[in-house]
UniProtKB/TrEMBL annotation, chain A:
This is Uncharacterized conserved protein, DUF934 family. The lineage of its organism: Bacteria, Pseudomonadati, Pseudomonadota, Betaproteobacteria, Rhodocyclales. InterPro entries: UCP030820 (IPR008318).
From TrEMBL, chain B:
InterPro entries: NIR_SIR_4Fe-4S, NiRdtase/SiRdtase_haem-b_fer, Nit/Sulf_reduc_fer-like_dom_sf, NO2/SO3_Rdtase_4Fe4S_dom, NO2/SO3_Rdtase_4Fe4S_sf. It comes from the Bacteria. Pfam families: NIR_SIR, NIR_SIR_ferr. The keyword Oxidoreductase applies. SUPFAM superfamilies: Nitrite and sulphite reductase 4Fe-4S domain-like, Nitrite/Sulfite reductase N-terminal domain-like. Keywords: 4Fe-4S, Heme, Iron, Iron-sulfur, Metal-binding, Oxidoreductase. This is Sulfite reductase (NADPH) hemoprotein beta-component. Residues 53-109, 346-397 form the Nitrite/Sulfite reductase ferredoxin-like domain. GO terms for molecular function: 4 iron, 4 sulfur cluster binding; heme binding; metal ion binding; oxidoreductase activity. The keyword Cell membrane does not apply.
Length: 177, 560
């Protein structure tokens, strides 16, 4: 069980994220029963077997993009994106592409080095679930961190959360106002 | 100039609240140094040698008088009573304590200023032509476009953690005064044959460790698509730019590695998906923003002012200032004035609070309440009546802001260097001071004529030394400060990267080295030939021969 922020609320999530140990073959990864999220390479090697289960998701490493999963978007139970470092911004593009180009509408988890200072940008790029590293925040800090989701309430540009840019969302006052 | 509506203001206010809380958590130990670093950088806050350096954004270099006064007040209250204008039209504090920075942010927000994205691996301040709207060679006013793009880039959720910093400049005149060729994206406003507005787009230019002139990725992209096209470039860069080595992480390295044709292909592939999407610009939005940049209420004036010409004839000092510091204006009877922040003895780009207050007063009295910052680190009053130039000059002279040296050797572009910056390998301000001191004869300076000297205290090239006619780069050699000299760099439409003349020099040698370079030029030049043209004609050899003639056998070699 991991404590996560899902759709703006703190909940316990039971997805288990599997990683490949050093020297281990991704294709040969032992995938236990239950709700699990496997590395992209594992999924690609055993897609039919895993898709048939209905409770297997896929996670992307920082250097992996959604192109590889294009044909399976409707078959995965969940998608997660790893943030190996919080300054590694590739995952933002991965999320935006999954939502806007590949039509993914299911649960999208950001995990790893996920900090409250990035919550607003992460959700605007399409993540609905934020999973900071285990133990990064105390319970009280985690509760307080919810506020960061709303750091910016009316952003300028179009994003997954605001499909229209500000200049299309509202009639902005001009110089004569 | 652009004025915030409730939405702009709310975003800036929300930023203040966010940063205040981040500072609180950092000071309380909840946000580690590593976690705080990108947060503070994206708020313009560096940890420096003596105190934090705090950089405030001045979008495309425009400042209103009340903003100038606020900066003056803040420098007096929180700093040591002076500020430093940078080569990207921004302004920096050097001594404000860390914990008061959120208070300064809050103060800035009250006058529509901020420090958002002035550092960090994100899209930085948009720079442009300091003479936008008043230059005679302007084709299209770049400011509305810079403002529209500024809004798009501000708090962009996808591009806040890029591989490296990202700088965009916009030019709309025949002569490029925004150095677009050495930016990550350079935008050149154009009209096509049908008279429609669009952009020629350069990509992958930059200075720093690997200086490269930007390459053309598109000859013409219609204005409606400029945001989606930039978004496509940024997305390709965010996904595929190198993150393993910060020295190889700028977009120029990606463009070079792929080749411009392959990079263009990837961008177009991405653009095909986002083109015509919601970020496509609308006529209404462009008009809304462009209206803020309409001409001020110019008076109908005669082209010439008798009193002005009389003063030029009677007062040699005034005439010399007019020659260097006053520029032609598109409207009859008006001129643009450059206030020099290059007075010998003062660090280039520095200005005191008292001087800032005076500039604010002059902006109100003479120039519709506005001033501009140039990337050469001077200030501009863009709309002054010719009939008032003499009065303004007298006031500026009294305030130490009328050194008649714009474009001359002492108008040195210089980063803060090792005196302030923790990235620097060497000091830069004392080099500038020593050169200014050496060339203190105004007649000689005028005889030397147009020349640009740029000094950077390290590879990061904040002083743009690669594009200086004479570039000086501080290098570290076993803990000692040495200086490498390049010749033949230039900005403008035909920007070039200067070439290193040879082994570097000790600090004390630098005034002599510059003197010898200048003497070589004086001896070799044709009549009316500018320094840069002589360098281009005769090459580096005569300069090298002269400079190294007496030095070579005795000196330590400090190649870096």
């Amino acid at each position: 069980m991991s404590k996560v922020i899902k759709n703006g609320r703190i909940v316990n999530d039971d997805w288990q994220i599997l990683t490949v140990a050093e020297g281990e073959e991704a294709a040969a990864l032992s995938v236990p029963a239950g709700r699990v999220i496997v590395p992209l390479a594992t999924w690609l090697a055993r897609r039919d077997e895993l898709a048939a289960r209905g409770d297997v998701g896929v996670w992307f490493a920082g250097n992996e993009g959604p192109e590889a999963l294009a044909d399976d978007i409707g078959r995965v139970a969940v998608i997660a994106v790893s943030f190996p470092k919080f300054v590694d911004g590739r995952g933002y593009s991965t999320a935006a592409l999954l939502r806007t180009r590949y039509g993914y509408t299911g649960q999208l988890i950001a995990f790893g080095e996920v900090l409250r200072d990035q919550f607003n940008y992460l959700t605007r790029c399409g993540f609905d679930t934020l999973q900071p590293r285990e133990g990064r925040y105390t319970d009280a800090q985690f509760d307080a961190a919810i506020a960061s989701l709303d750091d910016y309430t009316e952003p300028y540009q179009a994003s997954v959360l605001h499909p229209q840019p500000l200049f299309r969302r509202i009639a902005r006052a001009g110089v004569k106002a | 100039m652009y004025r915030y509506d409730a939405y702009d203001q709310k975003l800036v206010d929300e930023r203040v609240a966010q940063f205040r809380d981040q500072m609180r958590r950092h000071l309380a130990g909840e946000l580690s140094d590593d976690e705080f670093r990108p947060v503070r950088l994206q708020n313009g806050l560096y940890i420096q040698r003596h105190a934090p350096m705090y950089r405030i954004s001045i979008p495309y270099g425009h400042l209103a008088s009340r903003q100038l006064r606020k900066l003056a007040y803040l420098a007096r209250t929180y700093d040591k009573g002076y500020l430093h204008f940078t080569t990207r039209q921004n302004v920096q504090f050097n001594w404000a304590p860390l914990e008061v920075i959120p208070e300064i942010c809050a103060e800035l927000a009250t006058v529509q200023l901020h420090s958002i994205q002035t550092s960090g691996n994100c899209i930085r301040n948009f720079t442009s032509d300091p003479f936008a709207g008043v230059a005679g060679d302007e084709l299209i006013d770049p400011r509305p476009w810079a403002e529209i793009l500024r809004q798009w880039a501000t708090f962009h959720p996808e591009f806040a953690y890029l591989p490296r910093k990202f700088k965009i400049a916009v030019n709309g005149a025949k002569e490029d005064r925004a150095v677009i060729q050495v930016h990550d994206i350079g935008l050149d406003l154009k009209k096509n044959e049908a008279g429609e507005i669009g952009f020629r787009i350069l990509v992958g230019g930059g200075l720093g460790r690997t200086p490269i002139i930007g390459r053309e990725i598109e000859a013409f992209i219609p204005w409606q698509h400029i945001i989606t096209y930039c978004e496509a470039i940024l997305r390709v860069y965010n996904r595929y730019g190198r993150r393993d080595n910060s020295f190889k992480a700028r977009i120029k390295i990606l463009v070079s590695a792929l080749g411009i044709d392959e990079f263009r292909w990837q961008v177009r592939e991405e653009w095909a998906h986002v083109k015509d999407g919601p970020n496509t610009l609308t006529v209404d939005e462009v008009h809304r923003v462009a209206d803020f940049f309409d001409d001020p209420a110019y008076e109908a004036l005669p082209a010439d002012d008798v009193g002005y010409h009389h003063h030029i004839a009677e007062d040699l000092a005034f005439a010399s200032w007019v020659k260097r510091n006053v520029r032609a204006h598109k409207k009859p009877g008006y001129a643009s004035v450059v206030l020099s922040l290059k007075k010998p003895g003062v660090a280039p780009g520095d200005i005191t609070s008292d001087q800032l207050d005076l500039v604010a007063d002059w902006a109100d009295r003479f120039s519709f309440g506005e001033a501009r910052v140039t990337h050469e680190q001077n200030l501009v009053l863009a709309d002054v009546r010719k009939s008032e130039l003499y009065t303004l000059w007298q006031l500026a002279r009294k305030a130490g802001l009328a050194t008649p040296n714009i474009g001359l050797l002492t108008d040195i572009i210089c980063c803060p260097g090792g005196d302030f910056c923790s990235l620097a390998n060497a000091k830069s301000i004392p080099i500038a001071a020593a050169i200014q001191e050496r060339f203190d004869d105004l007649d000689y300076l005028h005889d030397i004529g147009d020349i640009e000297i740029n000094i950077s205290g390290c590879m990061n090239a904040c002083g743009h030394h690669h594009v200086g006619h004479i570039g000086i780069l501080g290098v570290d050699k076993n803990g000692e400060e040495w200086y490498q000299v390049t010749l033949g760099g230039s900005q403008g439409n035909h920007a070039t990267i200067g070439k290193v003349i040879g082994p570097s020099f000790a600090r004390a040698e630098m005034p002599d080295v510059i003197s010898e370079i200048i003497e070589t030029y004086i001896e070799e030049r044709h009549e009316d030939e500018l320094f840069i043209d002589t360098v281009r004609r005769i090459g580096l050899e005569p300069f090298k021969t002269r400079v190294y003639a007496d030095r070579q056998p005795h000196r330590k070699v400090a190649n870096v």
